[in-house]
Design goal:
single chain; mainly alpha; flat; Short-chain dehydrogenase
Amino acid sequence: MVGAVVSQIRGADGRQPGDPARIARILLDIAETGNPPLRLLLGKDAVAVAQRMADRLATEDAAWRPVSESV
């Protein structure tokens, strides 16, 4: 299992979407701000994955809200 994941990561090396130079500029600019974010999504793919995860978490939280609030 681990070998397959490592192979997949190595196979994608250098072919990730996005502009590395633009990301570097953004990170340098953010590092100079007074209040940089703890986390930052970079790229449409990252935003989409994070949104799906947030939606899933919100659905699960809503389903268990009565239990959560009863404590």
